[in-house]
Amino acid sequence: SICVGVLALQGAFLEHIHILQRIPQVSRAVPVRNIEQLDSIDALIIPGGESTAIALVAERSGLIEPLREFVRSKPTWGTCAGMILLANKANKTKKGGQSLIGGLDITVNRNEFGSQINSFESAIQIKHITTSSSDLFPAVFIRAPIISSINSPDVAVLARLQCNNVETDVSAIVAVKQGHLLATAFHPELTNDDRLHRFFVKVALDFLNEQKNEL
Ligand code: GLN
User: Fold this and answer.
1) Which residues does L-glutamine bind (predicted)?
2) pTM for the predicted model, two decimal places
3) Model ipTM over 0.85
């Protein structure tokens, strides 16, 4: 089993912890606010919230560099603002830009759905998670970003959103996996569906076991 941390500087971290607590392979689910806590976990979730606020607090508490180092070698999943922080490039940022943790070879557009649709729910297909149109995943989008480009062949697209009510893309990418890194534009922790959390824990366990075997 593994200990999973949830970055708890701002945003929807408690909801992630509650879902993780019902997964048998998770020995502990803990909030992460400092380097000691970051050092004590096997895998990390970066939650939704405001990516600018999370980045500011992380910078002030000296966590940005340790987070970058963690993400290079340990399983990490970013949801919504967390996905923005894991991207190597973000568009529509604040004046002067904003700090990112990086690690994922993707470009994201923040607040892609603008003010006309601040939040909505859509049942979507997700690779590895759903098998047919009868078990779609309830994806909750809240001032959500989308993935506007994939910048490496190592990035696998797991889900797209058919946006027939949005002017932007016809099928925006909303979930990706790159090795030990996972990102979703939506908020699985705000639903009762724990399939993505279980998937992340499995990806993390497989990755950490493989690393152990290589030693
Ligand atoms: N709009 C937020 C940002 O840009 C993300 C919203 C969310 O995490 N629900 O950081």
Assistant:
1) 49-51, 110, 142-143
2) 0.94
3) yes
